[in-house]
Amino acid sequence: MGVGRGEDGRLILLSAPLALFPGEQVEALVRWKPRHGEGQVTAWTRRDPRRVRAGCPLAGICGGCSQWEAGPLAGALKREMVADLLARQLPGAPPWRWLEAPQSARRHRIQLHWNGRELGFHRRDSHTVVPVAGCPAAAEPLSRAIPRLKEALEARVLSPKSQRWELAAGTPAGEVSAVAEDGRCWRLEPDGWHPASGPVSHNFGPALLRHRAGGFFQVCPDWAWSAFGEILGAWSLPGGTLFDLYGGVGFFSALLGGRFRQRILVENDEAAVEWARANLAALGLEALCLAADVPEWVSPGLGAADDLILLDPPRTGLTPELCEKLQTAGAGSMVLVGCDGAAFCRDLGRLAPAWELKELAVADLFPLTEHVEAVALLCKQHP
Ligand SMILES: C[S@@+](CC[C@H](N)C(=O)[O-])C[C@H]1O[C@@H](n2cnc3c(N)ncnc32)[C@H](O)[C@@H]1O
């Protein structure tokens, strides 16, 4: 993503198949809205000399990554993009912390598409399949499993029907699972794929977290564990009840461990809730884990002064109704996590009448893409 100006000076939000450097000139297909344009870059007319040769033959073709040509400057470019967004959307925000991704961070989940002949990723902005033999953005074992999956589909060892497949690896990345659209799962062994029902396991040293293959988990799990640990560890959090909302299999409850007297986790995926119960119990962390819809479950006045409401919603962010209910919360602190910068800033704006922004951090949890994870600590304002 980038921000540009048209020839008449109007602002254009640009999406590009390869990184955009400040000062570059591009051609773009632009759809004009009343006050700005939204464009897709089609060609570069002035390229930044710092561009590097992409480390992936599909850079700019498949829809997965957009930063290959930025090479070692990718982190700095993303930081500039975030700075620009925050300056426009959150003027007056406190200084924010940036956590750059380590070079070693790789994806532990990738989605492939089989069309009956080819196995690959979706072409950018399209549903056609671009065949792939490996993926340098994924953890090694996942990348090596791609041709093994293709062989099994061609040989009809696995269902040859056209569909989406997820390949997932635990932490450290070793065992690989392939999950079909109907949720059926196979594990890759040296002699091929075997039906499997066991979970994917992530060993973070102090904590072991498990989830059903195909269920949500952090894309770069070990990097996410250390980045969130660094961010939250540096902030002053209370110690009463942790409301871990949109809690998945207990990632944040486990990460914050014994810092809270008790925890209540709410998540609408029942299988994830079962795993959250097991994960937190194995860590000796007492937790009430509930399968429920967060906006419905939250009641006005939620929590007490020594409690923390932690919200990690999907990309779309919080609903207006939920923001409304949170205005009356009794909890003294809130952490908001968001992987869509615009939705995150919008939600901070909606919460602002009752919640003061105290701390802000942004981590590059999705290396090689234009996405980032933003985290905010808010403090309840007393009327
Ligand atoms: C971004 S993920 C975060 C999961 C968890 N915090 C983690 O870090 O692993 C969002 C989670 O919210 C759940 N979810 C989505 N909509 C929900 C809703 N309306 N109510 C409760 N949970 C929801 C999803 O199933 C998913 O597990």
- What is the number of strand segments? 21
Can you write the helix and strand succession as a string?
EEEEHEEEEHEEEEEEHEHEHEHEHEHEE
CATH class division of the largest domain:
Alpha Beta
Largest sheet: 8 strands, mixed
Task: Tell me the fraction of residues in β-strands, as a range.
Answer: 25-35%
**Could you list the spans in which at least 5 consecutive residues all have pLDDT below 50?**
none
The fold-level CATH name of the largest domain is Rossmann fold
Roughly what percent helix?
10-25%
> What ligand species are in this complex?
S-adenosylmethionine
Whole-angstrom Rg: 22 Å
Shape: globular
Distance between the termini: 40 Å
Tally of individual domains: 3
Query: What is the mean pLDDT?
Result: 95
What is the CATH superfamily label of the largest domain? Vaccinia Virus protein VP39
Structural class: alpha/beta
What's the total helix number?
Answer: 8
Question: What's the layout of helices and strands?
Answer:
Elements: E1 2-5, E2 11-15, E3 25-32, E4 37-46, H1 74-89, E5 96-99, E6 109-114, E7 119-122, E8 129-131, H2 140-154, E9 163-169, E10 176-179, E11 185-189, E12 192-195, E13 200-203, E14 208-211, H3 221-233, E15 241-245, H4 251-256, E16 262-267, H5 270-282, E17 287-291, H6 294-297, E18 308-311, H7 320-326, E19 333-338, H8 341-351, E20 355-363, E21 373-380
Parallel strand pairs: 2-4, 5-20, 15-16, 15-18, 16-17, 18-19
Antiparallel strand pairs: 1-2, 3-4, 6-7, 6-9, 7-8, 9-10, 10-11, 11-12, 13-14, 19-21, 20-21
Residues 216-218, 246-248, 251-252, 266-269, 272, 293-294, 312, 314 line the site of S-adenosylmethionine (SAM).
